[in-house]
Amino acid sequence: MTKLIAACSFLAALILFSCSPAGTGGAQGGAAAVWPRFPADPRVRGDRTLAVLYSTGNLGPRTTLAQLGYPGRNIFRLHEDHPQLHVVLMSCPANRYSGEGTVLDSRDAAATWRMLALDPRFDWLELGSQGYTHSPPDDSDLNHHEFSLSQEGCNIAHSGLDDPEYVTGRFNLIRSAYRSLEIPDERVVLLRFPGMTAGPRALAAAAEAGFVASMGTSLIKDLTLHGLIEIPDTRILRKFAQSDPLEKGLANGRLKRETVAESEEMKGAVALGVAVAEEAARGSGILNLSDVWNETFAWIGGTYPRYLILDAVLDAVEERYRGRIWFPRGRELALWLALVRDARVEMTSAGGGYVVEITPAEGWARAAGEGLAEASIIVGLPAAIESVSAVRIRAGGGAEWRDIAPQNHWMERRGLAVVFPIRGPVELQITPG
Fold first, then answer.
1. Measured between alpha carbons, how far is 296 from 54 in angstroms, rounded to an integer?
2. Is residue 299 within 8 Å of 57, Cβ to Cβ?
3. What is the per-residue pLDDT across 43-84, written as a single tens digit (0 to 9) for each?
4. Which domain holds residue 224?
């Protein structure tokens, strides 16, 4: 019995559709298991090349559903227009921009946070964390950031904001706030560091607190060395959704809201947005459309021009990548990327078939909660094997084998594609025939 550990770099897993297994040997007959870029779609049995989600701030300690625009406005309109798109709403329990106090001090705000996180009506939305107070406590400059080490000109020494006691205390406060609202840790695993800056001890404290990924991290070095996944931002207002000619034309009456969708200004902005999506597809494959929602839904010239651009770009991207697009929850994307980067995959040939053992990294299951309903892997089989008679799955530790439905496995050019659920260690049993 021979074994092969399939290991590939996180970067290669993001950029390529598959990666080569490491090591000098392989399972009998040269078989190997590799990860696709994103989980395969069993409905179309094809590769997904683009993952699209929307992340926005800010949910403050006094924010209510009505202020967010419920029902039917702002992010709720976005959901009505694009129900398959998932939203990450960044939250800050004691944001100093909102004054003193925490979300627990406002019954309406606390109810809003709890509903958004737990009510099935809002299962298209999840909360992310944007620090506890956003600005360091007692900092005389509210524009300073909670974990920044370099800011100056205030009454505190920012160089000390990577002290272990400070960063651990901040993340204890963050988790305590969500837990006080009865929001489980596994429901909040994404964060955006205030100002997108933090030191190494803050990164380690975030991972220790059960956060899996950081969003918008261009200013943070060595993020992945501390266990966090990076989900890059696509800042939509900066990239394509804020068109000065369009907005000026609406404001001065040259463009009419009834016909603005047909204007050259609108068409140019939408084309720019589609180009941004294509660039993402060629790169990491991640299109994380990020903004601050009230800026995107600004009312200008009798309409919402920035949202109209975003809406049209989403329509165009959905059409262009039909059958190749994934609309994950932020949590799902983070867990998938962490699985690809860190899981141990071991393939064994025995009894004329193969067993693929998948062991997520320590801590993955703790953060995963219900896990991933649809992960997938590509099992490269010897050329002589043209079909399989059965694929079965069992949880690690000797649970009973269960059949994987035929629609969830198929032969393709790289081997056998298998779609399966995962919450912790699992084994896949493949029987040729």
1. 12
2. no
3. 999 899 999 999 999 899 999 999 999 999 999 999 999 999
4. 50-326
